[in-house]
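Sample entry (336 residues):
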Amino acid sequence: MTDKKLISSLQGLRAVAFLSVVLSHCGAPWLGPWAITVFVALSGFLMTCNYYDRPRTAPGLRSAIAFSLKKIRKLYPLHLIMMAAALLFVLKGLLAQPSARGVLSCAAQLVVSIFLLQTWIPSSRFWFCLNGVAWYLSVQAFLYAIFPPLLVVLKKADARRLRCIAAVIFCVQCLASFVFWKAGLSGKAAFYLTYLCPVFRAGDFTISCCMGCLYHSRKQESGLPGGAFSLLELAAVLLAGGCLFIAACTFYPDPQHPIHQLAEQQKQASLAYTHELLTQLEVDDPEMVAKQMELIVEGCLSRLLVKRSQTDVDTARRLAEDILRFAQCRMGGALT
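Predicted structure, serialized as tokens:
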């Protein structure tokens, strides 16, 4: 997989996350944290898959900063344009009511915005200053910077250690959230520490990078064609959280509802992508095998909602391998 060959089955998840961000600003704020976490997880997982086999970048702070700047260079000019537009309104207000404090505050916000430091300052005056949505770019710039050394470390770990790293980080995040809650922190403080803080978001990012490494290692160890593993990419990124598209159809059962239709479109796109991969693998009756593979993924995700057992994942993988082998045998003239 390369930057030019995106995982088609994940585009629907991106669309649902994007829609959730929109809805979070339209009366459903609880969707926002989930959507941002999905974006961070997708970023870590896809970057790991894209860069796993590439040459290692040079070590050091300068190299990490250069890598981060390279990743954000497409969005940064747009950020500057929106920041400049917002700055005009701020300056207009200062001209109407000039004050030394206002000028200093404006200058501080301008410096913070230019260098994407919004989420590093525990003050609500800076989190959404000038270009409000740039706080996420601030977080991503940090995650991009730590990615090269992080990948070097994770590539040295075996599957067991990767699982342990992911589990430990998740437990630490849960414990930290519990401590913040018991400490009676204000809503703003808790919001910053568990939602905006780049260090906390680095935990989500690292977990998804571990999942990317696990996915890559299983892909390399198996004797099946590499394309077969793209059939389970969606399940890998959901991190055993259950199928959100099934949940969407459950909460919005009306087939004419936009969310229901979006979930249905994702299912159809996933099935079409699976069919395309199976056609490339030259298996017998790819349409039927694609439906079988989709049922395996759906069944495994539903099972994980109940037991969350690695055994179920291994069983689903073994079943998918068996079905693919039988289909290849039928194509070769056997089992007829």
